[in-house]
Write a structure and sequence with these properties.
- The protein is an alpha+beta fold.
- It folds into two domains: 7-45 and 150-210 and 296-357, FAD/NAD(P)-binding domain (3-Layer(bba) Sandwich), CATH 3.50.50; 92-143 and 215-292, D-Amino Acid Oxidase, subunit A, domain 2 (D-Amino Acid Oxidase, Chain A, domain 2), CATH 3.30.9.
- Helices cover 28% and strands 25% of the residues.
- The protein is built from nine helices and 20 strands.
- Helix 1 (16-27) links the parallel strand 1 and strand 2.
- Helix 1 (16-27) crosses helix 6 and helix 3 (65-83) packs across helix 8 (321-338).
- Bound molecules: flavin-adenine dinucleotide.
- Flavin-adenine dinucleotide binds at residues 12-18, 35-37, 39, 42-44, 46-50, 170-171, 196-198, 200, 217, 219, 250-251, 290, 292-293, 315, 317-323.
């Protein structure tokens, strides 16, 4: 008979995915151990943290916006009450409209009940005319804002550290032993292990077969005076006010090479796009790069390994981690603890045939 596990769960990775899971499992009184090799260029540390309920050129409501977005807003609000820190800044996104076609598209969409309640009333645009190059209109998008991810991650990390639930090291896959009803890792025993390694899932021998399509992204922090700080601006790029005349600007998408190294090309592209928007001068303070953990079918990835009992994954938050993450972390914990069904679209079962063929 195997020894009684000390932990209910071991979580590998303390990015947004691992942090949210840790939070919901702790709320259930579960004993957890998080193993994370801190990286200042993980996707979660780099991300702008935007929540935007309208997607793409066709201006449709973002997938799961009716369910996951209200859940996320409530979650960030409760976290604020609990910790006394406001991680999420709720603010409209102003879409900069520069031609008649775009204006027609937006006014047409405003009459569609699917998204009409997400488009706000016209605002006083005059305060932007001195700092932006000529534009036709600014369209306010409601139910939006941004999460200060580094601050959120730091708070969760501190909680875990203080309760001796964090191991700051690179996970060694060779030290994982999987038994029928438990797992062990070095001297630690647990009922289950959940991998949340972001795009580094490709280096995990248990999950490397999952069809990911990670996207590298680069982002700038700039300093400028004269730009109002109460709205996020969006055109081909976003400009997020961080306070104290600092703004986050991004982001780029590229698929090769997948590394965390800032490039001259991205700096040039972002500053060119910025120069098309801003009339005021600015100074680039920093440039960072990270890799978004996106699945080929652009849906999150949750669930059980096809061959190994006790081995789970929570990944694939892609470009929408901040808005989808809280709902799916809670959904996953309900599945793990209450045996509820996972939504099929996100269940890793959809790829089991790939994993099984490899006979892992
Ligand atoms: C430029 C850019 C802009 C973005 N903008 C937005 C945005 O505006 N809105 C939004 O919602 N999302 C955005 N994203 C996406 C967002 O960052 C992700 O959805 C989310 O943060 C992914 O979190 P994660 O925990 O799955 O992965 P990660 O953040 O990559 O976390 C994985 C963690 O696991 C650790 N780890 C990995 N392997 C191991 C191992 N073997 N041993 C120990 N630890 C390990 C890593 O060090 C890291 O801490 C952006 C991403 C980028 C790159």
């Amino acid at each position: 008979m195997s020894e009684t596990p000390v932990h209910d769960y071991i979580i590998v990775g303390q990015g947004l995915a691992g942090s949210l899971l840790a939070h919901f499992l702790r709320k259930r009184g579960k004993k957890i151990l998080v193993i994370d090799a801190f990286s200042s260029s993980s996707s979660s540390q780099i991300a702008a943290g935007l929540v935007h309920p309208i997607t793409g050129r066709r201006l449709v409501k973002t997938w799961m916006a009716d369910t996951a977005f209200p859940f996320a807003f409530k979650f960030y609000d409760e976290l604020k009450k609990e910790t006394g820190t406001s991680f999420f800044q709720s603010m409209p996104i102003l879409e900069i409209i520069s031609n008649a076609k775009q204006w027609n598209d937006w006014t047409g969409r405003k009459s569609d009940p699917e998204i009409s309640d997400l488009i706000g009333e016209r605002i006083d645009e005059s305060k932007y005319s001195s700092c932006l190059h000529p534009f036709l209109h600014l369209v306010p998008i409601l139910n939006s804002g941004w999460l200060n991810l580094p601050s959120f991650l730091h708070t969760i990390r501190t909680q875990l550290k203080n309760s001796h639930q964090l191991l700051e090291e690179e996970f060694d896959y060779e030290k994982l032993v999987i038994l029928n009803d438990s797992i062990s890792y070095k001297e630690n025993k647990a009922r289950r292990i959940i991998f949340c390694e972001g795009y580094k899932i490709s280096e995990n021998p248990f999950w490397s077969w999952v069809p990911m399509l990670p996207a590298k992204g680069e982002i700038l922090t700039i300093e400028t005076t004269g730009l109002p700080e109460e709205n996020i601006l969006m055109k081909s790029i976003f400009i997020v006010p961080l306070g104290s005349n600092l703004f986050r600007v991004g982001s780029t998408y590229s698929w090769s090479p997948l590394d965390e190294i800032p490039t001259e090309g991205a700096l040039q592209k972002l500053t060119e796009q910025l120069d098309e928007i801003l009339k005021v001068s600015y100074r680039v303070i920093s440039q960072k790069a990270g890799v978004r953990p996106t699945v080929k079918d652009r849906r999150p990835l949750l669930g059980l390994h096809p061959q190994h009992p006790g081995v789970y994954v929570f990944n694939g938050l892609g470009t929408k981690g901040v808005s989808l993450g809280p709902f799916f972390a809670s959904h996953f914990v309900n599945y793990l603890e209450d045996k509820t069904e996972l939504i099929e679209e996100v269940n890793v079962k959809r790829f089991w045939n790939v994993g099984r063929k490899l006979d892992l």
